Amino acid sequence: MSAARTRSAEGAPTSTARFRIGFARPADVEELHGLIRGLADYERLSARCVSTPADIHEALFGTHPAAEALIARENANPAPAAGFALFFHTFSTFTGRRSLWLEDLFVRPDLRGAGLGRALLMRLAALAQARGCARFEWAVLDWNVSAIGFYERLGAVIQPDWRIARVAGDALADLAARHSTGGGAAP
């Protein structure tokens, strides 16, 4: 991919011949939420996507931001957004350093194959390095064979021995209630 213009990972937008990628701003939240809904549709998880634009605004720009996002736009077209990457930091006790976790990456279907997914991942890798991260990680659905192949071609190693453990909804409330009723180990 030929870069017409690039800036530091932390700084101003990166521009390729066709796209510009920058940090999402509060004015991008409605459009970002629309892309999140598009991702949920693609992953066949629309029923689980219950976030609102207000939730995304609070997560990205509230008092205690939980995540950050990059948003991509076509250079010649001011709207709509072409894709996004939403990410946050985790910490590895084994490396003693933080890692960058990519929660979601999405490119509009009509723009897939144009190099934008690769450009977003490269920007995040540069950001992880600039921030001193030991790792750049994400999960991929096991049925998404094309994405797995794409990630492997970029040098990602799919971890076969790790599975995601999740407690949510009623199970989360039940587990938390056990703590408050003395069902767990003493603090």
At a glance:
With 187 residues, this protein is α+β, with helices and mostly antiparallel strands. It is 32% helix and 21% strand.
Question: What is the element layout, followed by pairings?
Answer:
Elements: E1 14-15, E2 19-23, H1 29-42, H2 53-61, E3 68-74, E4 83-92, E5 97-107, H3 116-130, E6 135-138, H4 145-153, H5 169-180
Parallel strand pairs: 5-6
Antiparallel strand pairs: 1-2, 2-3, 3-4, 4-5
In total, the number of domains comes to 1
Shape: globular
E-strand count: 6
Radius of gyration (CA) equals 18 Å
Largest sheet descriptor: 6 strands, mixed
What does this structure look like?
By secondary structure, the protein is of the alpha+beta class. The chain has one domain (14-162): Aminopeptidase. The chain contains 5 helices and 6 strands. The protein has helices at residues 29-42, 53-61, 116-130, 145-153, 169-180, and strands spanning 14-15, 19-23, 68-74, 83-92, 97-107, 135-138. The chain has a 6-stranded mixed β-sheet with strand order 1-2-3-4-5-6. A hairpin with a 4-residue loop joins strand 4 and strand 5. Helix 1 packs across helix 2 (53-61). The model is unreliable at 1-7 (pLDDT under 50).
